């Protein structure tokens, strides 16, 4: 009967090996844990039951005990091996999280294993990539903001030194000083407004506003700049355009930022069109230009905070790249959405939509 006991234990190990192979094919952690539980409970019970039926009348109690101990031990070993496969994948993700917490933003979790763990690893890696992109963008923002702050400050300092040395009269530099002060004020206002948007402390005072009047006024304010660049600026408003509940000064800021961006990327003799139309339960304002269009990355990321398409930006290429991020934050504060895409005819289309609702 000792041979029977050994055969039963060996059969248990063989079944465990088969289970380990089949275990890898189970797509979810839940199914794998169920498989471990079923194996750990069913195999000893089955082995002992079979041994008991065979040996009950032969008074082989010692053999039954050997079978019980052997099958239980082998089942425990197999269950531990199965469980370790899950724990190793979780440990790998834990190590990646610890590396990121320690400052290694390039750490990634292995994207393999059961469906739940694989999906979790993919989401974890996407989060890690977003964190890395954000830190890189913030570092770039510091460099860009420092550049934009240093340039007007250096100009102001040089003009003040010239006045102090008697090389110029205050009246000679007064217009230039005001211009440089305006540049500094604009940059600090942008940084402060973006900080308020990020912190969720932006105050939006909604009131019923004529969208047609708002668009017309904003376009008129930029027409002189468009004429200076020899760019045609047109407005197309739908008939019976409804009023919207919004903060007019914020909405003008959004449209002005979109138009400024379009002017920056539209060549001389180009054209920009501003369209407003009611679509379903929302109103859409679209800015189209005849520039070079958008890259795939720009279409996805141009509204992200601190992101710019041109990493080697010079002062001639624009400001610190905060305008579109601020526009997105202001639109979302109104419960709206903003997007960008390329036109079939060439150029870019940047638009935002606001929900139609009665002012409170």
What key phrases describe this protein's structure?
Heat Shock Protein 90, two-stranded antiparallel sheet, elongated, Helix Hairpins, alpha+beta, 360 residues
Q: CATH fold name of the largest domain, please?
A: Heat Shock Protein 90
Q: Got a strand count?
A: 7
Secondary-structure-based class equals alpha+beta
Count of domains: 3
Helix content: 55-70%
Oligomer: single chain
Tell me what the CATH architecture of the largest domain is: 2-Layer Sandwich
Task: Name the CATH superfamily assignment of the largest domain.
Answer: Histidine kinase-like ATPase, C-terminal domain
Report the principal-axis shape: elongated
The separation of the N and C termini measures 88 Å
Write down the CATH class of the largest domain.
Alpha Beta
Q: What percent of residues are in strands?
A: 5-15%
Q: What ranges have pLDDT less than 50 throughout 5 or more consecutive residues?
A: 311-318
Query: Whole-number average pLDDT?
Result: 78
Rg result = 34 Å
**Could you describe the largest sheet, including whether it forms a barrel?**
5 strands, mixed
Strand order of the largest sheet: 2-4-5-7-6
- Tell me the number of helical segments per DSSP (H or I, 4 or more residues long): 9
